[in-house]
Design a protein that fits this description.
This protein is mainly β and about 775 residues long. The chain is about 5% helix and about 55% strand. It starts with 5 loop residues before the first helix and ends with a strand.
Length: about 775
């Protein structure tokens, strides 16, 4: 079920998302419809519409496609990376903290209170905190990726876009589905949902679950004395996880006008945080082929444990007054847990600098308590005529108490960082009013206008600091302990859609959005002042064409786009190597996304997807600290280096003007193919394959020979049998079938590498029951 790349499943824009049903069925092990390609219905504008008539860039993937890709136990969110043109997802904090980038715009900050320009929405509920964004997606009906600023109708801080997940809902008739698989490293995955009426035509229920397991398979080869204890080598010490999720939904329909949808969910997760392979990168090269994937040498971090429990619920009430419908969505989310890791990626004694061992380092982030409330109310006119409209308001409140622990001990100087841990209290409140109107000016020509006014307020308080084991609080008195930032700004968009013929449509869109100010309090762990960044704003444009050709058996589609972000929020390193926030002058980007899907004969489906991106930071003055350890530059930056002596040694700086945005691939290519062979019993034998290749990607703000990837690729294969009417499917699958070891992230000072998932081979069984 892991078999086929998402890049072909999902169109790079609304212009070519209509091809997605065929590719989704290829992914899920279902035959494409013999008569051609199906229509897609989306809710990108808060109402159900044919994607052909939505004037913005939307990628769509079915739930079957997503389940197929994660059959081997892959993270349901990271699985989207590179498979949707223009979308990149990565994590250097395990399965609990994904970071999202749309068209190159994202945030590399790993602070637990970091804000991201991509908003996650599950069943109309905003998931803003970075840990809540990791909530797995299961028993899902459809995924929509809305590219570009979406502030008029959705969420907050959406300068890059929205990823929207809609789950399968309770129905008035019994139905169930399940997908199960087993694979390499003891990987097990079960994604299932069952539901039906409790009281016919009045009350329905749906129960859903996702259970994923993988056994530990990575050895810790370290033997010796650490800062904690004496360690011996351990087989199969890390890499496994148990991710257990449940959800219950109730749908109450006492009449034709009123509906009430209630939902509650829980997650219990235990696993391993990201493993950094120290010294995997050698100076002058990004080649990691010599580093063993399944072995690390960590002297601290207690084998990098990670554990979180998350609970949430929502109530969605709707009343149809006839000319308009009033909708209210109330939601609450809470989570707590921790993530511990050996942040320098291995034993300092094993990786000397100038022939001298260079110390130990570990960190732990712990959310003691997080509570998020959101309330949205909107009223919308009955859709369908020449004129459509909607108005609404949103209130958002997030509060958390977080502990950060960081220890660094340098053997060369016998010095350790002056502060071990801090406790912070973060509060983020926001309100917004929004609206949209759409009018068909004339036959085949529709104009849409939207706007929002948003106030975003953040406050961070330093509750407690402790210096090492002595317990002495030495946070400098001249540093801020309580910081509040607030910004109120408008967002807007304007678009036009022209239906040139039943098979060809064109659209153009201009949009402005903003991301609120941000505070990073984690700097206090190094006895440094909080770092902050003011609001960023974006102005973007895009234009696309949507086509269906050759009796609906071929789609050729394309979109082009560009944007400028002023006061862009960036993340670099201070003199301690600690990530800090700052505003750059601006960033600019342009690119295109295109896709072709062809069904030359009823039993064969071919797909190809392409995204191209050029991005650049425009800031002639800003400098960032580069890769250095114990006063030695350990990598090879391409820009001129400026050395600045200081109390803690020499800091090395380079300018970032002209550099591409981090984690913004210059191109991405997806190729897919599927062949179905009908059998005498009415079933089908099938074979499906995919190939994905990712272009030049820079992981940090400055260019080096080491901290980049170019030409990363993975392939997948799936062979199986589908019963008549798709009652069930049995298949064997492989993901990363060639066992590629791709560089996915770095820790600069320690030349440490983060790798992609290993090859997974397994067997899957899925079915639907009514």
């Amino acid at each position: 079920m892991l078999g086929v790349a998402f890049g072909s499943v999902v169109g790079g824009s609304a212009a070519f998302a209509q091809a997605a049903p065929v590719q989704d069925q290829v992914q899920a092990g279902q035959a494409a419809p013999e008569e051609g390609l199906d229509d897609i219905v989306v809710t990108a504008e808060r109402r159900s519409e044919n994607l052909q008539k939505v004037p913005l860039s939307v990628g769509v993937a079915s739930g079957d496609a997503l389940r197929a890709y994660t059959a081997g136990g892959d993270d349901t969110l990271l699985a989207l990376s590179g498979r949707v043109p223009g979308l990149y997802v990565e994590s250097t904090t395990g399965r609990i903290f994904p970071r999202f980038y749309i068209r190159g715009l994202g945030n590399i900050d790993f602070y637990l209170g970091a804000s991201q320009p991509v908003t996650i929405i599950q069943d109309d509920v905003i998931l803003e905190h970075v840990v809540l964004k990791s909530n797995p997606v299961f028993d899902v009906r459809q995924v929509e990726v809305l590219r570009g600023p979406q502030g008029s109708l959705f969420g907050r801080n959406t300068t890059a876009g929205i990823i929207k997940f809609d789950t399968n809902k309770p129905t008035n008739d019994f139905e169930s589905r399940a997908s199960a698989s087993v694979g390499s490293y003891g990987s097990v995955s079960l994604d299932a949902g069952v539901g039906g009426p409790l009281i016919k035509d009045l009350l329905s229920i749906r129960l859903s679950t996702l259970l994923q397991h993988r056994s530990n398979y990575i050895d810790n080869a370290y033997a010796g004395v650490s800062q904690d204890s004496t360690a011996t080598p351990r087989k199969d010490a890390m890499g496994g996880f148990d991710d257990r999720n449940v959800r219950v939904q109730l749908a109450l329909t006492p009449g034709e006008r009123f509906t009430l949808d209630l939902s509650g969910h829980a997650r219990w997760y235990d696993g391993t945080s990201t493993l950094f392979h120290r010294g995997a990168l050698k100076k002058g090269s990004n080649d990691v082929s010599a580093e063993p994937r399944n072995t690390v040498s960590l002297d601290e971090g207690n084998d990098n444990p990670q554990s979180y429990n998350t609970y949430g619920g929502s109530a969605r009430a709707s009343y149809d007054f006839g000319p308009a419908t009033l909708t209210s969505i109330t939601a609450y989310e809470t989570t707590s847990g921790f993530s511990r890791g050996d942040t320098d990626g291995g034993a300092g004694a094993n990786f000397p600098v100038r022939g001298v061992a260079n110390g130990f380092g570990q960190s732990q982030g712990q959310i003691r308590d997080l509570d998020q409330w959101s309330q949205e109310v909107r009223v919308a006119g009955t859709p369908g005529g020449r004129f459509n409209w909607q108005l609404g308001g949103l209130y958002f409140d997030n509060r958390d108490i977080t502990d950060f622990y960081q220890r660094t001990f340098f053997l060369t100087t016998a010095a350790r960082n002056p502060n071990n841990w801090v406790r912070l209290h973060d509060v983020n409140t926001s309100w917004a009013g929004f609206g949209q109107v759409s009018y068909e000016l004339m036959d085949k020509l529709t104009v849409t206008l939207g706007g929002r006014i948003t106030e975003d307020k953040k406050r961070t308080q330093l509750l407690k600091t402790v210096q090492n084991a002595a317990g002495v609080n030495q946070y400098p008195t001249n540093f801020r302990r309580d910081v509040t930032l607030k910004s109120t700004k408008p967002s807007w968009d304007a678009s036009i859609l022209y239906q040139a013929s039943p098979d060809i449509s064109l659209y153009s869109r201009v949009a402005q959005g903003f991301r609120g100010p941000t505070i990073q309090g984690r700097s206090a762990v190094f006895n440094s002042d909080f770092s902050t960044a003011n609001s960023e704003t974006i102005l973007s444009w895009e234009t696309g064409i949507k086509t269906r050709l050759l009796d609906n058996t071929l789609t050729l589609n394309a979109t082009v786009f560009g944007y400028r972000v002023n006061d862009i929020q960036l993340n670099g390193n201070d003199v301690n190597g600690n990530g800090i926030l700052f505003n750059g002058n601006k960033a600019e980007a342009y690119g295109m996304e295109a896709e072709a899907n062809w069904k030359p004969v009823p039993n064969l489906t071919l797909g190809a997807g392409l995204s191209l991106l050029h991005s650049a930071i425009r800031d002639k003055t800003t400098e960032v600290q580069i890769c250095a350890l114990n006063n030695l530059v350990v990598c090879t930056p391409s820009a001129p280096v400026r050395a600045v002596p200081g109390a803690f040694g020499t800091t090395y700086l380079v300018k970032i003007d002209g550099e591409p945005l981090p984690n913004a691939p210059e191109y991405n290519v997806d190729l897919t193919a599927r062949y179905d062979q009908p059998l005498g019993d009415g079933g089908r034998a099938f074979i499906a394959g995919d190939f994905n290749i990712q272009g030049y990607t820079q992981f940090v703000l400055y260019k080096t020979k080491e901290f980049t990837a170019n030409g990363n690729f993975e392939g997948g294969l799936k062979i199986g049998y589908a019963a008549p009417d798709d009652a069930y499917e049995l298949a064997v699958f492989a993901r990363n079938i060639t066992g590629e070891k791709n560089l996915k992230g770095v820790i600069e000072n320690y030349m440490a590498a983060v790798f992609n998932e290993p090859r997974i081979i397994g067997v899957s069984l899925s079915g639907k029951f009514r």
